[in-house]
Amino acid sequence: MTETGRLIPRRRDMHPVPYDPEYKTSLTRSPNLPLLSLESTPSEETGPRFGHGLIGALDNNLILNFSKGAAPAIGERIRVHGRVLDENARPVPHTLVEIWQANAGGRYRHVKDTYFAPLDPNFGGCGRTLTDENGYYEFLTIRPGAYPWPNRGNDWRPMHIHFSVFGHSFGQRLITQAYFEGDPLIARCPIAATVKDRGQLDQLVAPLDMGASRPMDYLAYRFDIVLRGRRQTMFENKPEGM
Amino acid sequence: MVQKLGTLTETASQTGGPYVHIGCIPTFAGLPGVYPEDLGLSPIAEGAKGEVITITGSIYDGTGWAMRDAMFESWQADATGRYAGQPGADPAVSGFCRFAADKDTGEYTLRTVKPGAVKGHDGRLMAPHISVWIVARGINIGLHTRIYFDDEDNSADPLLARIEQRPRVETLIAKRIAEGHYRFDIRLQGQGETVFLDI
Lengths: 242, 199
Known about the structure:
The complex is a heterodimer.
Chain A: E1 36-37, H1 42-45, E2 77-86, E3 96-100, E4 126-130, E5 136-142, E6 147-149, E7 155-157, E8 160-165, E9 174-180, H2 198-202, E10 205-206, E11 219-222, E12 225-227
Parallel strand pairs in A: 2-11, 2-12, 9-10
Antiparallel strand pairs in A: 2-5, 3-4, 3-8, 6-7, 8-9
Chain B: H1 20-24, E1 52-60, E2 71-76, E3 96-100, E4 107-113, E5 118-119, E6 125-126, E7 130-135, E8 143-149, H2 158-161, E9 173-178, E10 181-183, E11 186-187, E12 197-198
C-alpha cells in the first residue's frame, strides 16, 4: 500500500447537522454528547478493498440487472456518472460505489415501503461498480420518482439516488444522496436541508450533462464525490517539535 | 488576495434512510439474486486463526427503543493485530463485515475472530478492538465507535484514556456473557450514551 498519512479531520460544519427538528427521526437518533475527536489511527487509515471479481457484468445497469437482462425497467433512461476524488483533488481508483433508489413511480422494493405506487417487476433498485484507475464510475438507470413520506404533514422526497462509497480507509466511509438539477422539491426537503452550508447542498445536486447523453437513448447527469483526504508531509512520524 | 489552495471539500453526508438495505445488503432486504451474495457476509473464512467469538447486542434510540432498521459495518485486525493487506496478515480474515439489526427484535449478531492488539503511530499498543460504523434513517452522518472486550487489558489503550468521564469508558466495552460470547449494546442518546468518535 502506497497510501500513508493521517486522515484530514472531518469538517463537521460541511456536513448535515445530526439533530434537526424538521427531520423528526433525527431527534431521537442523534447523540446528545460531543463526539470524541482524535487523530486517525491505523484502524481508520486501513479499510476493506474489493476486487473486480466481485462485480458482475450488469451490476451497474439498474435497467437490466433485476431481470438479468430479460426485460428493461420502466422509466426515463438516464446515465449517472462522475469521479470519486479526495480532498487533495486526487482520484480514488478501484473503490466500490453502491447505489439504491426508488423506481420511476417513487416506490422502493422493500417490505417497509407501503406507498401505493406500483412495483415494477423489472426493477430492483440497487447497483454497484468499482471506479477505474482515474476514479471514474458510471451507472445506467431510470430516473427515480419523487414520493411522499411521513414526517411533517405533507413532505415529499425529491428525486434522488443514494450513494455509498468506501474509499481506501474505514475512516473515509460515506453515504450520501444525489439530487437532480431543477427539481423544485429539493428546496422543500427537510433531509436535504439538514445540510446547512449552501455550497455543500449545491454539491449534492447533479447537473444535466448533455455532452455525456446519447441521442435517442438516455440523458446524462454528472455526480462527482469527494472523500476525506490524507495529510501528506515529511514531518510525519517524528517526535513533536523536531 | 492569496494563492488558491486547490483542495476540495468532502461531499456532505446524507442519511442512509430506511431502505439502506436495498443498496448494501439486497438479499437481506428481499432482493435475492441481483448479486451472488451480500457484501461482507462474514469477516472470516474457514481456517481463520484465533478465537472465534460472537457479539450480540441492540442499538437503542433516545427513547430506549431497540431500532429495527440500523445497518452496521465492522472493520478489524486479525488475531495478531494485522489488517487485511498488511504483510503477514491472515488470508482467512477479510476483517470487514456488514450486518443489520433484526427487523423483528432489533438484535444484531457479529461472528468473527477476536482481533489482536494493534500498534498506533506512536508505538503504543491499542487494546484489541473492532471499529464499527452505524447508519440508519435519522442518522445524518454515519457514527463511528469501537468495541473493546472486558476480558482484555484495556488500561493502557490510548483512545479509552482520552475519555474524561471514566464511567463512559464502559460504553465501549463488550461484556463476556459466555464462552466466546459477548454482549455489546449501543445507545444513541441519553442515559448511558455510547461514546462516538470523530476520528
